[in-house]
Amino acid sequence: MTGRWLYSIALVGVGCCFGASGTTEVNGSYVATAYADRGVTASGQLAHTHVVAADPDVLPIGSRIKVRRAGRYSGEYVVADTGEKIQGRRIDIFIPSVMACKKFGTKEVSVRVLSLGDGTHAAAKQADQAVKQDVKQDLAQKTPGNAATDADLAAKGAATSTSTVTRTTIKQATSTSTSTDH
Fold this sequence. Notes:
Blueprint (H helix, E strand, L loop, with lengths): L1 H17 L9 E8 L15 E4 L9 E5 L6 E7 L8 E5 L3 H7 L2 E9 L5 H21 L8 H32 L1
Parallel strand pairs: 1-5, 2-4
Antiparallel strand pairs: 1-6, 2-5, 3-4, 3-6
């Protein structure tokens, strides 16, 4: 009798964490903070945008998630890092600016798991490639809020403006030097 009871508890324990689809109970509200520490993550990758740290018992390394209610940082992320203070339903979003991290503060966000990782470096690398591809597509269509964040679109706009100004400046400089050569 005792053996059957323990077996039942084990099955209930698995069901409560992952549900029938494997991701049901990990979806929902999380507390989000932000970090700017550069370096190698727990997955072996360098920290970069669209990376979050999470409790690997809740969201294993290599999981792809969609984060909502994170302001301009709402978008798609890969779980590629862990943290001593990141326990339970908490995520820590990598934002490359310390000032932006402070401004982000602490928010209650909504997380939807797109795919649950298996905790390996290979899973994190594969998920990271998928996230980057999704972000690239969103930026090409200028549609932030799906995979790409408003911060991505703003950064792309700033890069585009800078390159346009540079091309214009070069063109003007070429025109000026050409007209003075005659």
